[in-house]
């Protein structure tokens, strides 16, 4: 019986090593894809922060001067639209346990249904921008 336990533990450890090596191979194989996705995400966050700063400048200008240009108005509309998109995906992420697992599926289903949940800074530049509000 003790010999069976040792054999079982040994087999379990071999299976565990095999799983780890398979996972490592998957990571190595997809290294470029993962690093590109991470760089794109960080660039999107940086651009979103810049746009939010620009939006706050436009709001302050509107509060003091009571007028803004058409371009500033368009920027403001797009940024507010993006903030609502972020809130629409982010609030369930914070409130619902396990939502971090569900969110990628929600984004994929929304994309298939023609619903755009990605903020404008997180879209690839080769696709046409659907957030242009006129």
Helical stretch tally:
4
Name the beta content range.
under 5%
**N-to-C span:** 76 Å
Count of domains:
1
What is the β-strand count? 0
Order of helices and strands: HHHH
Protein name: LETM1-like protein
Keywords: Membrane, Transmembrane, Transmembrane helix
Organism: Lutibacter agarilyticus
Transmembrane segments: 86-107
Overall description:
With 134 residues, this protein is mostly helical. It has one domain. Helices cover 77% and strands 0% of the residues. It has four helices and no strands. The longest helix has 35 residues. It is elongated and about 75 Å long. The C terminus is likely disordered. It comes from Lutibacter agarilyticus. Keywords: Membrane, Transmembrane, Transmembrane helix. This is LETM1-like protein.
Quick recap:
The protein has 134 residues and is an all-alpha fold. 77% of the residues lie in helices and 0% in strands. Helix 2 (31-65) crosses helix 3 (70-95).
Layout of helices and strands, plus pairs?
Elements: H1 2-29, H2 31-65, H3 70-95, H4 99-112
What attributes does this structure have?
134 residues, mainly alpha, 77% helix, LETM1-like protein, transmembrane
């Amino acid at each position: 019986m003790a010999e069976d336990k040792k054999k079982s533990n040994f087999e379990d450890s071999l299976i565990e090593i095999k799983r780890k090596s398979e996972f490592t191979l998957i990571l190595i194989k997809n290294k470029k894809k993962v690093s590109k996705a991470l760089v794109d995400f960080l660039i999107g966050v940086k651009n979103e922060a810049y746009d939010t700063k620009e939006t706050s400048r436009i709001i302050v200008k509107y509060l003091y001067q009571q007028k803004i240009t058409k371009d500033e108005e368009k920027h403001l509309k797009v940024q507010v639209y993006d903030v609502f998109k972020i809130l629409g995906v982010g609030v369930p992420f914070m409130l619902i346990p396990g939502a971090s697992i569900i969110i990628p599926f929600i984004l994929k289903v929304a994309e298939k249904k023609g619903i755009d949940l990605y903020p404008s800074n997180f879209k690839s530049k080769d696709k046409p921008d659907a957030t242009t509000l006129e």
